[in-house]
Amino acid sequence: MSTLHLIRGSALNNNFDHYQSLVSVDDDVILMDDGCYNVNILWLATLSTNRIFVVTEHMQARGLTVPEGVMEITAKQLPKQLFKHTNNITWT
Question: Which structural domains are found in the chain, ordered by start?
């Protein structure tokens, strides 16, 4: 069973290190809201999954670009991702 991790806060303002053990290989991670600021933080590369998404509109609103290896989804596609997973966890 996979889990969807919604990261809504910046790792610069929060200690997300303890969440690392919660992310498994089959999980998806979506950066949204201020969580988009994590897109260029090395901490993200230490997660067990390589399935990392960003919400395009949230990135654009913050003037951020999407690095290689990170996938984009639109806000309209977000509900589909939510229902694709058995569990959802929101990190703030």
Answer: 3-91 (3.40.1260.10)
